[in-house]
Amino acid sequence: NIGITDGKLAPCPESPNCVNSRANDSVHAIKPIRFKRPISQSVAMSAIKDALMALPNLEIIEETRTYIYAESTSKIMRFVDDVEFLFVDQPFIQKVHIRSASRMGYRDFDVNRERIQSIRSRLIEKGLAVRE
What we know:
With about 130 residues, the protein is α+β, with helices and mostly antiparallel strands. Helix content is about 20%, strand content about 35%.
């Protein structure tokens, strides 16, 4: 259950192994990535790709003008998580919507939330994003 439908990332399933910046409930909700100031879409995408590539066992699978899809594979059990970023289709953007979800199982022990927080932290360290 990945990709863009009606301009949005897919909602999370009921299981607590997914986070989504458009979710309203406390189990699944996570803040979008907010940049300090509007930056070009290409700079924002490049910064997020750099942050993704710094994570172990992660591969970018698809990239369009407004979307990045990556897969993260756990080291021991080889479980795959889907990680998605949706950019507003404008020359300059300030926020990016995110979704990170486990394909299998019920609980993820906050692995998806921590992955997104790690990406956000890398962008904050580079002076690009704000802490929320």
